[in-house]
Amino acid sequence: MKTCLTLGLLFALACPHFKHPESNSANASVETDGTFDITVDAHEDTPQRFLDDNYDVGSTDPRDTDFISLDKARAGHLDAIFFSIWAYPAKYKGHFGQRTLDLIDSVYSQAERHPDRMMMCFSVEDIQRAHNQGKLAALLGIEGGHSIENDLGMLRDFYRLGARYMTLTWNNTNEWADSSGDTGESDVVHHNGLTAFGRAVVLEMNRLGMMVDISHVSDKTFWDVLAVTKAPVIASHSSSRALVDIPRNLSDDMLRAVARNGGVVNVAFAGSFVDNDFNSEAYAQHLRMLAAAEEYNAKRRAASLPVSPEETQRFEVEWLGKNKIPRVPLKSLIDHIDHVAQVAGIDHVGLGSDSDGVDFLPQDMDSSADLPKIRQALLERNYSPDDVNKIMGGNMLRVFLAVERASRGLQTPVNSR
Ligand SMILES: [Zn+2]
């Protein structure tokens, strides 16, 4: 499991209603008259479980605590998931591409195992088709630009395999974009935002029709992306910095910039992203966990046992499981959705749970079956049903469609390698 938490601490389509005047035949079926009525989770980390733990998304085992299963998704009216393809940098250095391919394969394998209930999707039109057939729409988003190994050809190959967004960095600065996760680390080579190659990556993503995801990037990278992109951007899983001041969240200026760009901010659910008290508590706990891991590794070294990032991570996950702190109220998450809607506008907010990738989701949000509680809470705050549909997934699909359309106007390759 990815402990995004630790790094965050530091700091309807049965009738989708998207109106567009320049419709072409390829998308004629998605033209209707209002908002999408389909629920989208823009960021789910389950593929590591598929690949490493042999987790089956069709599982009905009540002991499975995963946020996602086919039953749970159906119970929560969750229609489309962007599965996060994340190659852990510390573990897969030297073969990020291979790990990325293996994770992509793990999602395809699940869809092949459950063809009656789940299908791979590559476009908004595909999502509509899946929804019409009563199947979970499975999409792919790469988390961390290191996956492309500094190669635009590899970026294109991942697009061809189905990746429809890429988070430019994870918590690690790569060779062409600065991350928010290692800003103060002097041993990391930073670039003051995007390099020239980084700008070429963004433009090539625009050309391909791959959404540019600014979650995890440094503030300077964010502004560089907004200056260069020719299509709307997304934040697949980030919350509000005005409410919880951590680098992984977006300031109000950033929220307004995403709105001007026509993009969408999918609010992340993790306790440390949405609640200050939890964040302080979790930070203290994080330090205790690091100390415990250090002690554990020291004992292993003394006993001549191997010490590896994998074993350390396993220990940390186990330790966190035994040292839980109280979860945040669901209200904290709703406050962030509300704030982003107020500042960026109702057309620029969505959901990116980051589930199965963080350890602490809000109370009453145990699995995707609980997603209707968000819908209900928003209705109780006097959001109209149409506005709630926008938040639950309509905005993400509108942006996806806009990115598909922008790509059609950009069909000259911008660079080779
Ligand atoms: Zn993340």
Please explain how this structure is put together.
It is a single chain. The protein is an alpha/beta fold. It has one domain: Alpha-Beta Barrel (TIM Barrel). Helix content is 44%, strand content 10%. The protein has helices spanning 4-9, 47-52, 70-75, 89-92, 96-113, 124-132, 152-161, 196-208, 219-228, 252-261, 271-274, 276-302, 309-322, 330-344, 372-380, 385-408, and strands at residues 39-44, 78-85, 118-120, 136-143, 163-167, 211-213, 233-235, 264-267, 349-351. Strands 1, 2, 3, 4, 5, 6, 7, 8 and 9 form a nine-stranded parallel beta sheet that branches. Helix 8 packs across helix 16 (385-408) and helix 15 (372-380) packs across helix 16 (385-408). The longest helix is centred in the last third of the chain and has 27 residues, at 276-302. It is globular, with a radius of gyration of 20 Å. Residues 3-34 have low confidence and may be disordered. The structure holds zinc ion (ZN). Zinc ion binds at residues 4, 143, 216, 237, 354. Zinc ion (ZN) is lined by residues 4, 143, 216, 237, 354.
Mean pLDDT: 90
What CATH first level would be assigned? Answer: Alpha Beta
In terms of structural class, how would the helical and strand content be classed? alpha/beta
CATH topology: TIM Barrel
The residue fraction in helices comes out at 40-55%
Topology pattern, helix = H, strand = E: HEHHEHHEHEHEHEHEHEHHHHEHH
Q: Which distinct ligands sit in these coordinates?
A: zinc ion
What's the number of structural domains?
Answer: 1
Biggest β-sheet, characterized? Answer: 9 strands, parallel
Apparent shape: globular
Report, as a whole number of angstroms, the end-to-end distance.
33 Å
- How many helices? 16
Low-confidence stretches: 3-34
- Which superfamily, in CATH terms, is the homologous superfamily? Metal-dependent hydrolases
CATH 2nd-level architecture: Alpha-Beta Barrel
DSSP strand content: 5-15%
How many DSSP E strands? 9
Rg value: 20 Å
